[in-house]
Amino acid sequence: MRFAFFGDVVGRAGRDALAEHLPGLKRKLDLEFVIINAENASAGFGVSENSARQLFDAGADCLTLGNHSWDQKEALTYIVREPRLIRPINYPPLADAPGRGANLFETASGKRILVMNVLGLVNMASMDDPFAAVDKQLESCPIGMACDAIVVDMHAEATSEKMAMGHFCDGRATLVVGTHTHVPTGDHQILPGGTAYQTDAGACADYDSVIGMDKEEPLRRFTTRIGKERYRPASGPATICGVYVESDDRTGLATRIEPIRIGGRLSQSIPSLKVAEFQAG
Amino acid sequence: MRFAFFGDVVGRAGRDALAEHLPGLKRKLDLEFVIINAENASAGFGVSENSARQLFDAGADCLTLGNHSWDQKEALTYIVREPRLIRPINYPPLADAPGRGANLFETASGKRILVMNVLGLVNMASMDDPFAAVDKQLESCPIGMACDAIVVDMHAEATSEKMAMGHFCDGRATLVVGTHTHVPTGDHQILPGGTAYQTDAGACADYDSVIGMDKEEPLRRFTTRIGKERYRPASGPATICGVYVESDDRTGLATRIEPIRIGGRLSQSIPSLKVAEFQAG
Amino acid sequence: MRFAFFGDVVGRAGRDALAEHLPGLKRKLDLEFVIINAENASAGFGVSENSARQLFDAGADCLTLGNHSWDQKEALTYIVREPRLIRPINYPPLADAPGRGANLFETASGKRILVMNVLGLVNMASMDDPFAAVDKQLESCPIGMACDAIVVDMHAEATSEKMAMGHFCDGRATLVVGTHTHVPTGDHQILPGGTAYQTDAGACADYDSVIGMDKEEPLRRFTTRIGKERYRPASGPATICGVYVESDDRTGLATRIEPIRIGGRLSQSIPSLKVAEFQAG
Amino acid sequence: MRFAFFGDVVGRAGRDALAEHLPGLKRKLDLEFVIINAENASAGFGVSENSARQLFDAGADCLTLGNHSWDQKEALTYIVREPRLIRPINYPPLADAPGRGANLFETASGKRILVMNVLGLVNMASMDDPFAAVDKQLESCPIGMACDAIVVDMHAEATSEKMAMGHFCDGRATLVVGTHTHVPTGDHQILPGGTAYQTDAGACADYDSVIGMDKEEPLRRFTTRIGKERYRPASGPATICGVYVESDDRTGLATRIEPIRIGGRLSQSIPSLKVAEFQAG
Ligand SMILES: [Fe+2]
Ligand SMILES: [Fe+2]
Ligand SMILES: [Fe+2]
Ligand SMILES: [Fe+2]
Ligand SMILES: [Fe+2]
Ligand SMILES: [Fe+2]
Ligand SMILES: [Fe+2]
Ligand SMILES: [Fe+2]
């Protein structure tokens, strides 16, 4: 199975870049499934129904969220109607959070892919144990048996917690990929047990910015500690950042992971489909 | 000028990999100066005189530190004798911190390179303003005039604070590179004003680990919240991670930045010296 | 029912002051039950079996813990044998934490008192939701029916989270009292629903100190950011700090709460038993 | 000299209670100077010119601020015109913060009192070292010589940092009092060197609340992690909380500190002026 995951889309620049590059990439890589983290899709804060639709139109099959899930209040009701929108799974029991934290999708060719979104705890918002929440999902849906692929979007700040989640899921998930820091990491690898891993997918954003936001206000706050304006997404050409993964449908484990960085300022990384694979697909 | 910067060395695996790969790389890339962040060089915590010597022997010209500077108490006295060891610059005035937070080095060919180490504040130890501390150095040593290159090691957790530091120094430093997260980022670029930038250099460490540490104890603490043993560095083959930079000696600004990832599990990235450059050097 | 709760005992000074003052106070106030937070009883860090015994000998019927529960490793096995020792209740499911987070005690006169210890999340160690964990206990043991009194030790940093826990339990617990900050608060009150509340019980410690620790090292670290020695408990005369509570055995709700501050430097507050109550008792 | 300090005023309930109780208390205690922390005076967030005037009319001679200083943007310009408004002193050098962090006032009888406001760092906003900032003020204005009294408003979260500030100033200031937690502490004392100290003055607020705010929304957020509405100040009768201090004008050191808690739900504490003192005054 061939699929891709893209990190936090920041505002219009990110949405536009996905609309520009994603359709061609899907064809080129013969992607069966595309997941995009959309927690910053609407003007940098949360996701509106309108922004979500643009991402679905660009080729997303599933959108994940994070600590900014509800910055646009309409997301609280939109998610109830939209099963392709996935919020963090580790809300505490009294939260009665709307929507779902994991969902099993069926691709056009009939493959089943489980996607979940989970919030880390280190230097983040307080949530219940992300490891226990993920464990419960992995145990109830054994990879290679109950589904063909499992993707864990580990939305977290600390590299330690993300790497720990990678190892925790190793051999039980197809891909563990981090989001939230808005910077792609260069540590993509297949862990010893067969799970593809990258600490952060990076943002789909203009990288002449501060994590996708126009530089001026963040610089003011860092140097003076006194804010003046709201943060606004930077509007220059965005780089869409993510990972491309190939997996073995018999085991559900990964056979390849490559970084994707297309457009904008960052060094470009565009996976290529080998001919043999394409024919076999 | 051609120089390289390597991120946090974690224990023996990191030191050994540098001893193995760095001498050849220096020759291959004709490096004039090598900086290594050594805050985790001694068994993962701080730097001893012995560990520092191994890194100098491997080819380091300068070692930087971070929030783990004094984990080995001997570093408090060693740094007073060793001007090539640089600790964070933004201690508060009452600290009377030993050693220095910045130093101007002269290379074999007579070029002058200013290196400083600074601690970020977001989700880190409390220190005085890193921006003001760096600003003071940059203003007192104008690049291209009082020195040929300036390197800022921004030892910080948050990607936002690191990117802000990059822009803050843009046009005034040759390289702003982050350390501390122990994961290399894939966002190397030359900022609009001419400063090379990468959010994190990554660690020189075994990447089948949790940020360079043996997986078992971190996984135990994340899942149970009850520690059992000390953290120990992972002992598998390390990847040395860093950046290679070329700068224009007339302006001090960067003309090229490439990631370095050699050895171990991560995808390899080895810059090559173009023939013309080598002759011109 | 008449009972007392004392906050974090810090080292020998705190243990000695309890040994000196508690036996007389139990007689004077005709206390049926005494709870002491012991997370700092052993040299300021955790609780050993030996320290626990001194507190039981002084008159404690139950000891609670906190974020320092396991600083003395022997507590991990001691707690399995000692049902009077209560650790935080909100460990995540994978923790399999030793001991118990709540226990129902029977007093000499046959009254049943449920005691639980819970860790707050704001600026503390990561744990599962404290509100959900407490809710489960309160629902399974209705006050005035399944027991005569319920005490919630809310071990937390933030005053907001502690006050929220007070209101969350109001009408369902006899006492919600905070621990962890090592400073008694002056806000004891009976909440609208009948639950006695004080944001922090305060420490049983020498108050010529920094939260019970010898001043020198904390002052050094605050002013220089560079530690030199371990923290040691201050050794001057301690003030034992806590609250005295009277409750209605028919409802389990509180009818009186008074602060206790005896010995040492702080202004003294010693509740007195009214004659009528004593006879009725 | 006799003066009083009141902690964070939360919204209208706090302002009204001060208007009701402060004028009489000033007469009764023959107060020469009154300081009020006003960082939450305007609907719980920051201070407007209008709110400040109400507090001056109620009897304040000086208002201090904190981490909420600029929640009302008009405060950024108002403070430039109003020397009786004091913001945190430890902004970094590049901040160029408006207004002042310390001011020397002269009372009607010609006594000089220096008031400063400083932000703690532990679990708070990042600022430059509070100890260095306070030290500079204390050294430039020796108590008993350059002024008759010095008050340090230590606006901080952690009890440890506040107690450390108390000891740091001991013998050099008349009063070190904490603010920010919105809960009065019961640990008022005169430190060994003669400085009056209380970890937190407490809020001037309705205590049937979560730190002065209406309970509903904080409880929702704590239990569900999903916000619904803005925080609003609780509107029940407020308790005004603070400390009353008497000092020796020859030395500037404290001779007495008593808690003040008047009105509302908390146990009342109203200092009384001894006849002999009144005549001596
Ligand atoms: Fe994001
Ligand atoms: Fe996020
Ligand atoms: Fe570090
Ligand atoms: Fe490090
Ligand atoms: Fe604690
Ligand atoms: Fe404690
Ligand atoms: Fe505050
Ligand atoms: Fe406040």
TrEMBL record, chains A, B, C, D:
State the InterPro entries in the record.
Metallo-depent_PP-like (IPR029052), YmdB-like (IPR005235)
For binding Fe cation 1, which residues are annotated in this chain's numbering? D8, E39, N40, H182
Its domain of life reads Bacteria
- Keywords assigned: Metal-binding
Example of a GO MF term? 2',3'-cyclic-nucleotide 3'-phosphodiesterase activity
Q: Where does Fe cation 2 bind?
A: E39, N67, H155, H180
The record places the active site at: H68 (proton donor)
- UniProt-recorded name of the protein: Metallophosphoesterase
Give the organism the record lists.
Asticcacaulis benevestitus DSM 16100 = ATCC BAA-896
